[in-house]
Amino acid sequence: MNSNQPQLTVRLARDAADIRAAQHLRYRVFIQELGGTGALVDHVNKLERDELDPFFDHLLLVNTCLNPDDGQHVVGAYRLLPDDRLDQTGGFYCDREFDLSPLKQSGRRLLELGRSCVDEAYRGGPAMLLMWQALAAYVTQHGYDILFGAASFHGTDPQALAHPLSLLHHRHLAPPELRVRAKDYQQMDLLAPDQLDRKAALAQLPSLIKAYLRIGGVVGDGAFIDPDFRTTDICLILDTKAMTRAAHSLAPKGVTTP
């Protein structure tokens, strides 16, 4: 193999240094690239972090050719919160934005996903496919039934996102028993079905959201405007059986799900 080629592997964070490297990556993507912010963002050390980080499992895409001592070895990240840690966290991250009662009352095992990002230099290749395969293995190992998390559109003007938000509402709304509802509710059905421009809607859908939809993902009712990350968030919900079947064939190229 050419020594200049990355050698990628996916594993869980092993220690505080791994988590710090993931926070460095998140700072580059969410803060420097996308213009977000947050109460615990450390601009001096260039870390995007919050108080829940210690309780998540951090799934990392690592370039083993890079030196871990300088914190640049992590080139992709997903953070995962199992439902059996809520006594430690006080809730899911998404509780801030959505009423998750339907999921919590479903009797099914839940895994929250978030802070999905890939370094710009690694997008468009095998990075997300590798991470999804590892995520599918994690889900199978621990027996989770439902994956969910906030997925983001860049920008805070719902009217500018009228076509994709309306498409999600009319064609991909979760069944009532799993239909979470946004807090500070922003309606998504901004256009009637006969007003939808499907081509325009698909062009505005982030690739990661498209990938979830292709394997049966559905969305909650309403969007949430996140002023810190400067995004419009929807809640994506996915039956893990669908993801496991598709993990080896889909390679989503999306950037973020804060």
Provide a compact summary of the structure.
With 258 residues, this protein is of the alpha+beta class. The chain has helices at 16-33, 86-89, 101-104, 127-142, 162-172, 198-204, 207-214, 240-246, and strands at residues 8-12, 57-63, 74-82, 98-99, 110-118, 146-154, 181-182, 218-219, 224-226, 231-239.
Walk me through this protein's architecture.
The structure is a single chain. The protein is α+β, with helices and mostly antiparallel strands. It has a single domain (8-246), classed as Gcn5-related N-acetyltransferase (GNAT) (Aminopeptidase, 3-Layer(aba) Sandwich), CATH 3.40.630. Helices cover 29% and strands 22% of the residues. The protein has eight helices and ten strands. It has helices at residues 16-33, 86-89, 101-104, 127-142, 162-172, 198-204, 207-214, 240-246, and strands at 8-12, 57-63, 74-82, 98-99, 110-118, 146-154, 181-182, 218-219, 224-226, 231-239. Strands 1, 2, 3, 5, 6, 8, 9 and 10 form an eight-stranded mixed β-sheet that branches. Strands 4-7 form a two-stranded antiparallel ribbon. Helix 5 packs across helix 6. The longest helix has 18 residues, at 16-33. The protein is globular, with a radius of gyration of 18 Å. The chain starts with 7 loop residues before the first strand and ends in a 12-residue tail after the last helix. Residues 250-258 have low confidence and may be disordered.
